[in-house]
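We give the chain.
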Amino acid sequence: MLSRKKFIRQAALSAGAVMAGPSLLEAADYFNPLKLTILHTNDTHSRLEPFPMDGGRNQGMGGVAARSRLISQIRQEEEQVLLLDAGDIFQGTPYFNIYKGEPEIKAMSMLGYDACTIGNHDFDAGMENLATQLTGHARFPMLVCNYDFSGTPMEQKTEPYRVFKKGKLTIGVLGVGIEGKGLVPDNLFGSTQYQDPLQKANETAYLLKKKKNCDMVICLSHLGYQYKETDKISDEVLAKESSHIDLVIGGHTHTFLDQPVIYKNKSGNDVVVNQVGFAGLILGRLDFEFTKFSGKKLAKSHTISVSQKSGG
């Protein structure tokens, strides 16, 4: 309980702040950071259960139950959390061979994913199947801005971007997919029109930053982290050739990055790029802070191993 002297002093300070007008309150708001925690996966490839205890290097690792415990624990600790996936949800275990993606999409919905993008293996049972799984079981959007699905079963089943309100923060998320020709059989990719991912990503990011007034723009990319071939578009190229993207969460190349990589974009600003391997072995975590004084910064990053012991 407050002593009489402390109570009078505290009341006087509070009254002084109010009498000083909004300037002190605005100053506090100017310096106090807003926080956002971004959790992410990529290339989970139908790995719903942990790897079997067969002596392999990944035994006991992965699985949606352990991932769910981790996500729930973090959501209890942090007020503003986004959960995102960078594609290749399907293919890799008998679950997909038998059920064609239904349990994978249901699991992501139960875990409360906010958004994903599309990977090349998500076409593996055909576009009609993917459309059916999304329509029937997804409680999150699949984002891709450089595929034109007009005249296909996937028409109007995806969105180019989605805007999320997280407390006082406005976060724009867009998606880009990889070229399907030569990677996805023609009968599965159908008449999908592939569009330049750099052009479409930059156009969409401009819209989100300048028209939608987003505090941060995140690109979910299934382009792949890095290539030796100079003519292939990667997350590295995307980051360097962008203007309004702040974070690229990548997939496709199954790259395990111990720490996010930071590139300079065309305007000389930082773009954070991260990818966390495959099969749900790792849950990526990026903690950002936003202030009016210093803008946004990556305050902390984690690569959290997912196992049967995860989350207590």
The domain at 35-305 is CATH 3.60.21.10 (Purple Acid Phosphatase; chain A, domain 2). The mean pLDDT is 92. Residues 86 and 128 are 21 Å apart (CA to CA).
